[in-house]
Amino acid sequence: MPELPETETIARDLDREVAGARIVSVAVTRADVLREVTARVFSRRVTGASIGRSWRRAKLIVIDLTTGDRLVVQPRFTGALLIDRGDLPEQERRYSTIELRLEDGRALHYRDIRRLGTVALMSAERFTEYTDALGIEPLDPSFTGAHLSALLRASRQAIKKVLMDQRVLAGVGNIYANEALWRAGIDPSRASDRVSEGEATRLRDDIVAVLQESIALRGTSFRDYRDASGSRGNFAERLAAYGRAGEPCLRCGHRLIGTHAIDGRMTVLCAHCQK
Questions:
Q1: Which residues contact residue 170 at a Cβ distance below 8 angstroms, ignoring those fewer than 6 apart?
Q2: pLDDT tens, 123-173?
Q3: Residue 14's domain spans which residues?
Q4: Same structural domain for residues 12 and 124?
Q5: CATH code for the domain in which residue 118 is found
Q6: 3 tagged catalytic
Q7: What's the sign of the alpha-carbon dihedral 32, 110, 69, 141?
Q8: Residue 2 annotated as catalytic
Q9: Catalytic residue among 56, 59, 111, 204
């Protein structure tokens, strides 16, 4: 967390709000979040640059700079990119690790309470090298049922673990793997090579649908996720599996089971209607 819908939401916000803005100063207060460069090099290379396009790859937020460099942010559990118009709450500013001061008077903060996320500065070539190992984007038109079926047939691991493998499918994490498998009626522990082509096609459609629905509602907030304006996402109200262990299945009424047995992460399923 954040996963694809949350990072997509942040990237879209930034692209709308700060594209074209010039960075006039940089303050690095917690250099341990930086990757690829030192704080001094980061400040030197970023100061004076203008922000181009902001976009997403997998669970990464990518900010193109006019210098050719890219800011690559991986928020993980408690990270957030927040636009500060002078009204950012002190509780958010307190955990700012990097501040980019913009020419128009605003600032862009990378806030990270536990400092588990990272901010890297990369050339375009380095970024390509860094992301080459990532799998297909589930919202790409080339991600079809047949494509997913081929990916699943190549592994005997539990299907939930395969869906969360970023080398296979980029951007899907624990929340949306749980949700898509519940929608498709597939047991998360089933070996992925035991999923039929028809089931894979249905699962592909459910993956895409749940991601698009969450993006429309600006992601899922349980604890720390905030969009670029500091607001919470609203998709938590639509969750059918994740976070509902012990509650009735919305499809059949049987009690949902919660377990850490599959991949060490919380898996929630209905043993009655997920086979």
A1: 4, 57, 58, 59, 134, 135, 136, 137, 138
A2: 999 999 999 999 999 999 999 999 999 999 999 999 999 999 999 999 999
A3: 4-131
A4: yes
A5: 3.20.190.10
A6: yes
A7: positive
A8: yes
A9: 59
